[in-house]
Design brief:
By secondary structure, this protein is an alpha+beta fold. 29% of the residues lie in helices and 28% in strands. The chain has 2 domains: 114 residues, 2-Layer Sandwich (D-amino Acid Aminotransferase, Chain A, domain 1), CATH 3.30.470.10; 160 residues, D-amino Acid Aminotransferase, subunit A, domain 2 (D-amino Acid Aminotransferase, Chain A, domain 2), CATH 3.20.10.10. It binds 3-[O-phosphonopyridoxyl]--amino-benzoic acid.
Length: 286
């Protein structure tokens, strides 16, 4: 059965869903996006994703042609129309079609696209064993060039780092910022646990403020685990008791080594497992 895609305000069969080759989203990566999960027919933390989308758009001076509540409805309608019970929503807003050249004043009709589909996750086995990680030589974009806090259609920086991970045989890669501090992975945020304290780099380290990251910090606080946002280097990860990643696709997944150094016992740690369990209960609405 063909998927129905929301584009130009309507749900149309996927084969007919298209945007112009003159759209600046394609020509310049000029636009913003969100990746959202559907669990048990409910769109998970939808309002937070939509709010981040509007903040990303604001930061790049992109005026989204529909309101925040209309966007919520567009996502919910698309999920329903495709009978997605457990799956994935890709929300894209492009700058719209225009003359060649960078001038946003010569574009019109920003395009809102909503795709609802199934999702491929990391293998379940990896949630039991944890994953190995390598540090990419490609650093994060300098926040003064393109803020990593904007979820923009410019993912080349992350893609270059991801290639390095793939070449090294890992499914993710750690990225440092221009000061050599830990920022995040190519599509996941990073956490460590040291002496019972949950630590993660602050947004100013040049990272996307993940919706999963924020949810996990709330769960940890609720479970009485102290949480700190602090600047960290690779050394902090090498010497951590536990390490894990968070992301819409990954959920919560243990990291058991970085650049050939074993982290903790080399197995997913107890606090990581507890947070994964709490997160899975949250997604299932328990
Ligand atoms: N950092 C980066 C650079 C990301 O792209 C995250 C962290 C985690 O954020 P969330 O809000 O998901 O907890 C992301 C998220 C995709 C895809 O299809 C990418 C992401 C999320 C979902 C799907 O490539 N990136």
């Amino acid at each position: 059965m063909s998927r129905l895609v929301y584009v130009a305000g309507k749900l149309v069969p996927a084969e007919q869903a298209s945007v112009s080759v003159f759209d600046h989203g394609l020509l310049y990566g000029d636009g913003v996006f969100e990746g959202i999960r559907v669990y048990g027919g409910r769109v998970f933390l939808l309002q937070e994703h939509i709010d981040r989308l509007y903040e990303s758009a604001l930061a790049i001076r992109l005026v989204i042609p529909i309101s925040n509540p209309e966007m919520v409805k567009a996502v919910e309608d698309t999920v329903k129309a495709n009978n997605i019970i457990d799956g994935y929503v890709r929300l894209v807003v492009t700058r719209g079609a225009g003359a060649l050249g960078l001038d946003i004043r010569r574009t019109s009709n920003p395009q809102v696209i909503v795709i609802a589909d199934t999702i491929t996750m990391y293998p379940e086995e990896m949630y039991r064993t944890g994953m190995k990680l390598v540090t990419a030589a490609t650093i994060k974009n300098h926040p003064g060039a393109l803020s990593p806090r904007v979820k923009s259609l410019n993912y080349l920086n992350n893609i270059m780092a991801k290639i390095e991970g793939t070449d090294a045989g890992t499914v993710e890669a750690l990225m440092l910022n221009h000061n050599g501090e830990v920022a995040e992975c190519t599509g996941d945020n990073i956490f460590i646990i040291k002496r019972g304290v949950l630590k993660t780099p602050p947004p100013e380290a040049g990272l996307l403020e993940g919706i999963t990251r924020n949810a996990v910090m709330r769960l940890a606080r609720g479970a009485g685990i102290p949480v700190e946002e602090c600047v960290m280097t690779r050394h902090d990860i090498f010497t951590a008791d536990e390490c894990f990643l968070t992301g819409t696709a990954a959920e919560v997944i243990a990291v058991t080594s970085l650049d050939g150094r074993q982290i903790g016992t080399g197995k997913p740690g107890p606090i990581t497992e507890k947070l994964l369990d709490l997160f899975r209960k949250l997604t299932r609405g328990e």
